[in-house]
């Protein structure tokens, strides 16, 4: 069973994760993980925190000589900003609890709901953990899964489809490799150059107005084996797991797979993918409106998922709120924030999608070493071609 837990606060000393169940013999380097952490910190529209932090992951266990050992993997990402918060956020009685107290909840954030749930007078005890800073270590965890998928020939491509009112337009015959190359060269992970320029202008306008913007990102996963997930129980459906993983990312408010919400607006003849057969391909579909999943099971076509991110709730032109101490109306408190973090959310999305696919692969094929797992996956792929 592949699983993980994360711990840590936005202004605490470190973010930590423990990963259990990863196969032995997986090539894994600090540099490989750090490349994904750098992608998460990039993107036009990011705020001041990214100028402080230069995220670097350290392995504290489970990796030796560049290979996983099969033992639990401990990851750590240090918060450089801890130096400015060590006295305020100290775990012992020396903590200066009277400083930087937050009593003004931000609309759209976990602030008020979390303070009520956990009976906290200082909202900082909520916002420190609910912050999207937590996604740094989740990207590190997802990158381990990404490394496993790469060893099995599974390719991940994430890109930004929309920011605010601007939507990217792609050429119909664009390949996954072309899409990955164009998105990788963009400040916004957007493969449409004209749309990217318009997105940047819209971000600049929002920032100038003290506002923020959301958007939509898309993730495509190629060469996923058919047969992952299951139809037999609600919690074993692959699309259910992917949707839950994406919705767990801070600020994500909607998820669709394949045609998604568009399927509600057209007849069934324009929704369902016709099935064909050839000796070379075995069963295949000429279209992929299902997004690679039918009945909760991967069908061998590329997985295509999209997520909608709301604008960051921390605004430099704060919305109205109520002080939880005095109960007087106030403008919501301002923490350091971004004008737009959709590209960063896309990188986090890639990480959580990679994780769920890796979990599904190990559930189906099992194995304690990379060699054993690869042999089983290759055998399955060979069998599928002759069904």
TrEMBL record:
GO biological process: amino acid biosynthetic process; aromatic amino acid family biosynthetic process; chorismate biosynthetic process
GO MF annotations in UniProt: chorismate synthase activity; FMN binding
Reaction(s) this enzyme catalyzes, per UniProt: 5-O-(1-carboxyvinyl)-3-phosphoshikimate = chorismate + phosphate
Pathways per UniProt: Metabolic intermediate biosynthesis; chorismate biosynthesis; chorismate from D-erythrose 4-phosphate and phosphoenolpyruvate: step 7/7
Quaternary structure annotation from Swiss-Prot or TrEMBL: Homotetramer.
Binding site for FMN: 129-131, 250-251, 295, 310-314, 336
Note on cofactor: Reduced FMN (FMNH(2)).
Classification via PANTHER family: CHORISMATE SYNTHASE (PTHR21085:SF0)
EC number per UniProt: 4.2.3.5
Similarity section: Belongs to the chorismate synthase family.
A GO cellular-component term linked to this record: cytosol
Cofactor: FMNH2
One Pfam family per UniProt: Chorismate_synt
Binding site for NADP(+): 40, 46
Function: This reaction introduces a second double bond into the aromatic ring system.
Keywords from the UniProt entry: Amino-acid biosynthesis, Aromatic amino acid biosynthesis, FAD, Flavoprotein, FMN, Lyase, NADP
Top enzyme class: lyase
Protein name in UniProt: Chorismate synthase
């Amino acid at each position: 069973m592949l699983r993980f837990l994360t711990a840590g606060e936005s202004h605490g000393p470190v973010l930590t994760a423990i990963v259990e169940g990863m196969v032995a013999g997986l090539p894994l380097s600090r540099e490989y993980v750090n490349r994904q952490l750098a992608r998460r910190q990039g993107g036009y529209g990011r705020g001041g925190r990214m100028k402080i932090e230069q995220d670097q992951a350290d392995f504290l266990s489970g990796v030796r000589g560049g290979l996983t050992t099969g033992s639990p993997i401990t990851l750590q990402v240090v918060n450089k900003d801890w130096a400015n918060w060590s006295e305020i956020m100290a775990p012992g009685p020396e903590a200066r609890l009277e400083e930087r107290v937050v009593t003004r909840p931000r609309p759209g954030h976990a602030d008020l709901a979390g303070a009520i749930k956990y009976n906290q007078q200082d909202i900082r005890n909520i916002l420190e953990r609910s912050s999207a800073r937590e996604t740094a270590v989740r990207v590190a965890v997802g990158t381990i899964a990404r490394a496993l998928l790469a060893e099995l020939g599974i390719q991940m491509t994430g890109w930004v489809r929309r920011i605010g009112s601007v939507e990217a337009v792609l050429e119909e015959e664009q390949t996954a490799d072309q899409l990955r190359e164009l998105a990788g060269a963009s400040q916004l992970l957007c493969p449409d150059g004209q749309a990217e320029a318009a997105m940047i202008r819209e971000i600049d306008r929002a920032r100038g107005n003290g506002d923020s913007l959301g958007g939509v990102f898309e993730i495509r996963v190629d060469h996923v084996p058919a047969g992952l997930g299951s139809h037999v129980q609600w919690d074993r459906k692959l699309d259910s797991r992917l949707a839950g993983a994406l919705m767990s990312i801070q600020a994500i408010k909607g998820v669709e797979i394949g045609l998604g919400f568009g399927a509600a607006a057209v007849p069934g003849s324009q929704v369902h993918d016709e099935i064909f057969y050839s000796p070379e391909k075995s069963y295949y579909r000429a279209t992929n409106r299902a997004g690679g999943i039918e009945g909760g099971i991967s069908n061998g076509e590329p997985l295509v998922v999209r997520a909608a991110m709301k604008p960051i709730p921390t605004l430099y032109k704060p919305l109205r709120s109520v002080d939880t101490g005095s109960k007087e109306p106030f403008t919501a408190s301002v923490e350091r924030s971004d004008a737009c973090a959709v590209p960063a959310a896309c990188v986090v999305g890639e990480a959580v999608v990679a994780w769920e696919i890796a979990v599904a692969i190990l559930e189906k094929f099992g194995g304690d070493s990379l060699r054993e797992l690869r042999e089983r996956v290759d055998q399955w792929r060979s069998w599928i071609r002759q069904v």
